Amino acid sequence: MPLAQNPLSVEVTLPREDVALIRVEGYLDVDTATEFQHHLANQLHHGRRHFLLDLSAVPFMDSSGMNIILRVYQEAREIPGSVHIISPTPAVRRVLDLTGVSITVPVSESFDEALSRADAGAGHVGQDEQQT
């Protein structure tokens, strides 16, 4: 039973009011994806615009996990906001690359890199909003 040996652990920290750093540990699959989705939905509900998903402790992810990442990516873009994946394990990175998710959702090697990318994107949106 992989689920019993590898339950999903999700830790949310807020580096800033509009940024949620979400550290995921364990298998991100059909059995655990709903829990992951609830954490993301809760952060959206509380006004977070930028989601930094640390997948460095996720040994396996199936299409359920990918679909949730793509869904929050679409929702964040509408806010406007962003989603960034941080340090995926080699197995997860392979799935992201093979499915093309890593082309759509930026993948960073560190928290600082992901936050800089979120800020770079947010800066452009903020300037556009001020001009209108």
In which range does the helix fraction lie?
Answer: 40-55%
Gap between N and C termini: 55 Å
Identify low-pLDDT runs.
123-132
The gyration radius over C-alpha positions equals 14 Å
User: What is the H/E order?
Assistant: HEEHEHEHHEH
The CATH architecture is 2-Layer Sandwich
At CATH level 3, the topology is Transcription Regulator spoIIAA
Write down the domain tally: 1
The shape is: globular
Structural classification: alpha/beta
Quick check: average pLDDT? Answer: 87
Secondary structure tally, helices: 6
Percentage of residues in strands: 15-25%
Q: Spatial order of the strands in the main sheet?
A: 1-2-3-4-5
Full CATH superfamily name: STAS domain
DSSP, total strands: 5
Itemize the secondary structure elements and their pairings.
Elements: H1 2-5, E1 9-16, E2 19-25, H2 33-45, E3 50-57, H3 63-78, E4 82-86, H4 90-99, H5 101-104, E5 107-108, H6 111-131
Parallel strand pairs: 2-3, 3-4, 4-5
Antiparallel strand pairs: 1-2
Helix pairs in contact: 2-3
